[in-house]
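Renewal narrative, Specific Aim 1. Our central claim is that a sequence can be written position by position from structural information alone. The example that follows is taken directly from our test logs and has not been curated for this report. It begins with the structure tokens describing the chain, in the order in which they were read.
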């Protein structure tokens, strides 16, 4: 029964994550619904997400969507940010961040509604400024990922297309490389502490790989037309989750 509940949802999470980020908003609750304790759920989710994100990343590399000049610097800075965020998470409650999300998420939804074609914001920056924006995005979103995490891919996509002036395909490629990097780092910590449920995580990981493969191919053929509606769904799920976590809903 546990496998029957978790595996299909983790597969769906992979499909969503490959297109618009935010798959963890589906997969992490799936593990908890399946009865895993919080730390085991987070750790096992990292295992399956790592497997799935590897497939999407490989698919985007194969299709030429990854510009390593930007993806590399973003991933490096995200590693630094995620390690700092993880250490901060050990010292403070995420309650304050969840309250901030109540105001931030509706603002992001309005911002997304206005950007119907993912048009860049302002003039295209010079090359060194584009590198700086990408590095800052990796650092800030990496810190957020280490501190809290949900919606990381979605936020990266919006920043990289809007402020680094990346094409949507290039931004999605960079996002996957950055996500894969932070997944590897956090998974290594969880494995050293024996937290993941290995068999369940591997089986769910296969489903996540299938979802990521299908999602990355779907994105390749549909582009922005597929991303925007799924982003709205991800933001909506995230908002409801925050309300629930703060005991304001449900």
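The sequence written for that structure reads:
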């Amino acid at each position: 029964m546990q496998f029957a509940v978790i595996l299909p949802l983790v597969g769906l999470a992979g499909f969503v994550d490959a297109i618009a980020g935010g798959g963890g908003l589906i997969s992490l609750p799936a593990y908890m619904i399946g009865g895993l304790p919080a730390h085991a759920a987070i750790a096992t989710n990292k295992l399956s997400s790592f497997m799935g994100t590897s497939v999407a990343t490989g698919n985007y590399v194969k299709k030429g969507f990854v510009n390593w000049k930007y993806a590399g610097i973003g991933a490096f800075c995200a590693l630094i940010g995620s390690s700092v965020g993880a250490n901060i998470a050990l010292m403070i409650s995420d309650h304050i961040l969840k309250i901030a999300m109540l105001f931030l998420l509706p603002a992001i939804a309005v911002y997304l509604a206005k950007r119907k074609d993912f048009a860049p914001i302002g003039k295209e920056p010079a090359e060194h400024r584009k590198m700086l924006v990408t590095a800052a995005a990796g650092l800030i979103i990496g810190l957020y990922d280490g501190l809290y995490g949900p919606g990381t891919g979605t936020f990266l996509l919006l920043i990289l297309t809007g402020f680094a002036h990346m094409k949507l395909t290039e931004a999605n490629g960079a996002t996957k490389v950055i996500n894969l990097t932070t997944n590897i780092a956090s998974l290594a910590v969880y494995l050293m502490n024996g937290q993941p449920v290995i068999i369940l995580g591997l089986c769910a990981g296969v489903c996540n790989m299938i979802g990521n493969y299908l999602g990355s191919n779907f994105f390749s053929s549909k582009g922005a037309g597929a991303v925007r509606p799924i982003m709205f769904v991800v933001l909506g799920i995230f908002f409801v989750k925050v309300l629930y976590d703060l005991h304001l809903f449900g």
